[in-house]
């Protein structure tokens, strides 16, 4: 093959690799969620989160050794680092607390609203300008969340509240991550894992049930799967444009529905499907508008159209 043709195909191959890694990472995250739901039906959320965090160090350990421990201590904006670690811990803990009683697809539908919350929070926390189109999409997306939440006396549940608060914490962790762009991924993931480990141990003490060898192995594997998924998605974002990869993230919802039906016999109800569709469409529109704004020079963007 001619060198000129190879050079022309190389960028496309890199983007395809990024897409494949994104899809694989989302599949791994969905698998992590299904494994977590199975484990928290028999053990406390605190214990599962704690042992899961230890398992993550099977992958993180060599990465920390290669990076150097000093970079874990010398971090930018320690206060934001702490807030991010707290939010990721709340996100993880409440997700597992929610799936104890709710189907995977229901909980994942709440978390699919994360990009919508990020768009709104970025306006207030990062000073990003949000035009009326995206504000309208944010409001529509939040209406989709209300459809899923179903805040009626008969159906409103503590698990649904956990899922909603967890999804907001997830969005906040993304916003804080944007403020910490100069921090290596290994450092960010290490501190959030340590925070989850500490919180998990604290909550596990009050609801302790000794796991067997097989159960401990499953919890450790949960940490490996979760950490691998995170690294896949991080690498994907470095190989392909975020605007290309972002819509693929909604494949998580599909896998959550599949795993929920296959392993737990959970079938999403019409209300959840309608609410999830509203959330996904609103999120895709926000991604589209962000891409439009990012590809047009700022001086050519009329005020308020973003």
From TrEMBL:
<dbReference type="GO" id="GO:0016020">
    <property type="term" value="C:membrane"/>
</dbReference>
<feature type="transmembrane region" description="Helical">
    <location>
        <begin position="245"/>
        <end position="264"/>
    </location>
</feature>
<feature type="transmembrane region" description="Helical">
    <location>
        <begin position="12"/>
        <end position="31"/>
    </location>
</feature>
<feature type="domain" description="EamA">
    <location>
        <begin position="159"/>
        <end position="286"/>
    </location>
</feature>
<keyword id="KW-1133">Transmembrane helix</keyword>
<keyword id="KW-0472">Membrane</keyword>
<feature type="transmembrane region" description="Helical">
    <location>
        <begin position="155"/>
        <end position="176"/>
    </location>
</feature>
<dbReference type="InterPro" id="IPR000620">
    <property type="entry name" value="EamA_dom"/>
</dbReference>
<dbReference type="InterPro" id="IPR037185">
    <property type="entry name" value="EmrE-like"/>
</dbReference>
<feature type="transmembrane region" description="Helical">
    <location>
        <begin position="270"/>
        <end position="287"/>
    </location>
</feature>
<feature type="transmembrane region" description="Helical">
    <location>
        <begin position="188"/>
        <end position="206"/>
    </location>
</feature>
<dbReference type="Pfam" id="PF00892">
    <property type="entry name" value="EamA"/>
</dbReference>
<feature type="domain" description="EamA">
    <location>
        <begin position="17"/>
        <end position="149"/>
    </location>
</feature>
<feature type="transmembrane region" description="Helical">
    <location>
        <begin position="212"/>
        <end position="233"/>
    </location>
</feature>
<keyword id="KW-0812">Transmembrane</keyword>
<protein>
    <submittedName>
        <fullName>Multidrug DMT transporter permease</fullName>
    </submittedName>
</protein>
<feature type="transmembrane region" description="Helical">
    <location>
        <begin position="132"/>
        <end position="149"/>
    </location>
</feature>
<feature type="transmembrane region" description="Helical">
    <location>
        <begin position="82"/>
        <end position="102"/>
    </location>
</feature>
<feature type="transmembrane region" description="Helical">
    <location>
        <begin position="43"/>
        <end position="61"/>
    </location>
</feature>
<feature type="transmembrane region" description="Helical">
    <location>
        <begin position="108"/>
        <end position="125"/>
    </location>
</feature>
